[in-house]
Specification:
With 101 residues, the protein is an all-alpha fold. The protein has helices at residues 4-21, 30-33, 41-69, 75-96. Helix 1 packs antiparallel against helix 3 (41-69) and helix 3 packs antiparallel against helix 4. The mean pLDDT is 91.
Length: 101
């Protein structure tokens, strides 16, 4: 029960990432999507959604493994997932929004 918040947050990020992946980018801040061309919206949504789902999956995996093995040293999975997810999101921002902001 100690990792329930990590589990819930991972599920929320995974669902949000799925919506972004399917093309609904309305949950992304307006200033992060203001220069995305209409024809690039599906690709932008897939890239941002993939990054968000990677972060959510890393949180879910960490929570499940910590519940099973009861070890505190599994946070490297979360850190790796966050770094990979953020790199994917940064790529999408630079490629489709032509800058970070």
């Amino acid at each position: 029960m100690d990792y329930i918040s990590l589990l819930v947050f991972g599920m929320l990020l995974s669902v949000l990432g799925w919506f972004n992946y399917k093309g609904n980018i309305s949950s992304i801040h307006w200033y992060n999507r203001r220069r995305v061309l209409p024809e690039d919206v599906p690709a932008y949504g897939k890239a941002m959604g993939t990054g968000t789902m990677i972060i959510g999956a890393a949180l879910l995996l960490t929570a499940v493994l910590q519940m099973i093995f009861n070890k505190e040293a599994l946070y490297f999975i979360t850190v790796a997932g966050i770094l990979i997810g953020l790199a994917m999101m940064l790529y999408a921002q630079i490629r489709y929004n032509h800058g970070i902001f």
